[in-house]
Amino acid sequence: MSHKIQTLSGYFHEYQKSVLEPEAFWSRIAESFHWRKKWTKTLEWDFEGPNVKWFVNGKLNLTENIFERHLYTKGETPAIIWEPNNPDEPNRTLTYSELYRLTNQFCNALKAQGIGKGDRVIIYMPMVPEAAIAMLACARVGAIHSVVFAGFSASSLADRINDCQAKMVLTSDGNFRGQKQIEVKAVVDEALTKCTSVQKVIVLQRTHQPVNMVTNRDLWWHNAIDGQPYEFEAEEMDAEDMLFILYTSGSTGKPKGVVHTTGGYMVYSYYSFLNVFQYSQGDIYWCTADVGWITGHSYIVYGPLLAGATTLMFEGVPTHPHPGRFWEIVDKYKVNQFYTAPTAIRALQAYGLEPVEPYSLSSLKVIGSVGEPINEEAWHWYHDHIGKGNCPLVDTWWQTETGGIMISALAGITPNKPAHASLPLPGVQPVIVDAEGNELTGNNVEGNLCIKFPWPSMLRTTYGDHEKCKNVYFSTYKGMYFTGDGAKRDHDGYLRILGRVDDVINVSGHRMGTAEVENAINEHPKVVESAVVGFPHEVKGQGIYAFVICDMTGRTEESLKEEIKETVRKIIGPIAKPDIVQIVPGLPKTRSGKIMRRILRKVASKDLSNLGDTSTLLNPEVVDDIIKGAGL
Ligand code: WT7
């Protein structure tokens, strides 16, 4: 494959070209795809609008570049290997030609239920091949999918449905997750009491638990596809037509619908997959993410399938039925590239080496990390005990908004450096800026991470609110995309990501807005005011710490804390549940009434050094109460 970089000097050469002549660089890669009509202009952009268009006027369907392009050579190659939650249940393998037929069949089912170009379809499903089929079928009929992680609550689901005015929901009766069986359809039913846009719900039978089916609205997946033909002519899309919306949390209270478009996302997810993981034909690649997150979109479904790869999909969790489950799967399928999150590594590390020892792991060639900074201890454990000291470890930095991996070693090409994402991919122009937005050039500098030139898979807008996109990402520093992360360029020129500098916390690799959690807490009738901050957590990376002012009448402190945690679980979902709730008499405020989160962060991380000057506070006396209340 000609787009695969082979050597370090080859990387530097490609990088140079991509900066000097970005349009020629990306054109050459895009030309290897099948376009119904070639683009007339490679790139049109300004970061003021922002307005970014790649492959202007190009016409294509992304799925023709997965199916029609590969079928003659890879029809019998496994596209998806599926491992169920329960190891005793049979696994499944779908070849490219089988996946093609099932996708087409589901396209016909979608059409029969009134879905066409531009319609929004919510996917709220377990990690089964049908989730990928659903995404691909949407892309093939020209509908815009929005996958919602099936752990989100009914009210989070309803918010997303309403924001994009989805016409259909694809779901399942229930999901298997470790020892648990989750009532997914019941959550959809509850969400839909607050939504009017949804006309049809298609329900996949997974757990066979009894569910309520609403007449004229709900139908079973197996009935929807029954008798539908296995052929479907793909819809012609413009390169800039929306491919999907994915909701993600930010500093503001409400999650934003990040919009990705067809042509650029296709080119970049393919190119980054191939180069970061150094995928070779015949390899078995496994990413442990869920399709509800961007990692699942770009590196379980789109990137690998566009590259004609074999992608493994796992329904379960790392510790069920035993903490060696991941390693058992690696050996079972002879996985060559393995991609997971630091939080999973730390959780498994806690079980010691015993669960790892029964497995050889000798098929592994590349191991990868994503979602949060990987601490050095976890890096070494992963590198030494899983990679056996001889697999390159790619620490991949990127975001929902970037669509694909931006800063990472290329496996086996870029020298590894623990806890450093390392170097930008070709086409990516990161800059570190100071508070005033001045670019800090040279090595040994630290500041905020921005990107100064467009790349094909960057977000185009936030759904239904372009102003928000402009304000959140393009207004902090003029003429640049601001990532929200801090970063350091070390003495070798390697980049190290330092974590979020805004009010976003990263819990087990999942993004949570502090304002979003506060809004949920404030729904509890006894809560007067709350402030949420992150604190260092051994397994999750960051935990959620809530300081809450409450009316205590009729409650004990313990019961109220539990009620507050439960409220958040109910409103957002289990991933947002605070680890610690502290009831406080007041919150430290500036004279203008702003909460001084800096002080709360210090208390939450049990670090009382450099508390700073608290005398300028409106209510300095509460600080002592809070410190005492925290048991410090
Ligand atoms: C935020 C984006 C990208 C897919 C998963 C998360 C943090 C992500 C790394 C890494 C340090 C990382 C950043 C980023 N992050 N990868 N390798 N090293 N930090 O996507 O939910 O959009 O979150 O995750 O803080 O801004 P996301």
Automatic annotation (TrEMBL):
Superkingdom field: Bacteria
PROSITE patterns: AMP_BINDING (PS00455)
Span of domain AMP-binding enzyme C-terminal: 516-594
Claim: Nucleotide-binding is one of the keywords in the record: yes
Domain Acetyl-coenzyme A synthetase N-terminal positions: 11-65
Residue ranges constituting the AMP-dependent synthetase/ligase domain according to the UniProt record: 67-454
UniProt-listed Enzyme Commission number(s): 6.2.1.1
Recorded coiled-coil stretches: none
Keywords, ordered alphabetically: Acetylation, ATP-binding, Ligase, Nucleotide-binding
Broadest EC class assigned to this enzyme: ligase
Claim: Transit peptide is one of the keywords in the record: no
PANTHER family per record: ACETYL-COENZYME A SYNTHETASE (PTHR24095), ACETYL-COENZYME A SYNTHETASE 1 (PTHR24095:SF14)
Protein family according to the UniProt entry: Belongs to the ATP-dependent AMP-binding enzyme family.
Name of the protein described by the UniProt record: Acetate--CoA ligase
Organism: Roseivirga thermotolerans
Taxonomic path: Bacteria, Pseudomonadati, Bacteroidota, Cytophagia, Cytophagales
